[in-house]
Amino acid sequence: MIIETPRLRLRAFRRADIASIVAGLNDWTVAQWLSRTPFPYAVTDAEAWLADADRAHAGGRYAIADRISDDLIGAIGIEPDDVERELGYWLGADHWGKGLASEAVGALVAAAFGTLGVRRLHATTDPDNARSQRVLLKAGFRQIGAQPADPPTRRGHTFRPLFERVS
Fold it and tell me: Comparing C-alpha atoms, which of 101, 70, 71 is closest to residue 88?
């Protein structure tokens, strides 16, 4: 499934995206906010992550690409997490401050509650990541508390704010 917005195309990942994935995730300004992504990030990490790309795409994992050039600028996904579904995303730092994260999150949340049949989403952020928290609030999430960060976040916090959106 492809989801298009005015400026973005959410699509399946391709092997041609590997260089952009590695470059984006080796930027500390991006990686410092991500809880599960290795840093530094190697080509072998991207290859392993893409090994199940087709299955993951069917479940809700997408490349965020520029709608005109189709170049990868980030990633977004809804991953299984026990009984709920967890939203996660990253965007290359060169693309911050343009409303693109909000555009991608809004589009995927709409698809999740529509096409994918999701009933509840949750997301966490680093406590210092005010930008990501604003993206979630703009997409209709509400903060419902916090959850332990085990291990601690890359910025040393032992908890992460917890956000939820219900269809």
Answer: 101
Is the pLDDT reported for residue 59 higher than 80?
Answer: no
Distance, in Å, from the CA atom of 41 to the CA atom of 152, rounded to the nearest integer, reads 19
Question: Which pair of structure tokens corresponds to residue 28?
Answer: 């500390």
- Is the pLDDT at 83 greater than 60, yes or no? no
- Quick check: 62 and 73 in contact, CB under 8 A? no
Give the per-residue pLDDT at 53. 75
Distance (Å, rounded) from C-alpha 139 to C-alpha 134? 9
Task: Give the chain's domains with CATH numbers.
Answer: 3-119 (3.40.630.30)
- Nearest partner of 49 among 28, 30, 24, 82, judged by Cα: 24
